[in-house]
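Help needed: design a sequence for this.
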């Protein structure tokens, strides 16, 4: 993931993990950034990218980017 392109409607981040062997997902609580939602999402995704947490083959972890209504 060389270029991090984030939708300007980004409001919150929600980790999601695929559960191996069970064909289901575990959705974790979303993290919101009330003062500057887009800037907060962008900052944390860039930090994750910088330390190697965001990779094309990240295994069973996904980060949903949610809009103000909680939609992906």
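Sure. Designed sequence:
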């Amino acid at each position: 993931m060389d270029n991090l392109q984030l939708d300007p409607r980004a409001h919150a981040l929600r980790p999601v993990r695929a559960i191996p062997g069970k064909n289901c997902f575990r959705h974790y609580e979303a993290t919101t950034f009330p003062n500057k939602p887009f800037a907060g999402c962008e900052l944390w995704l860039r930090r994750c990218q910088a330390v190697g947490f965001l990779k094309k083959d990240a295994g069973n972890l996904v980060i949903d980017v949610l809009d103000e209504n909680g939609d992906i």
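The beta strands are 12-19, 24-27, 31-32, 61-66.
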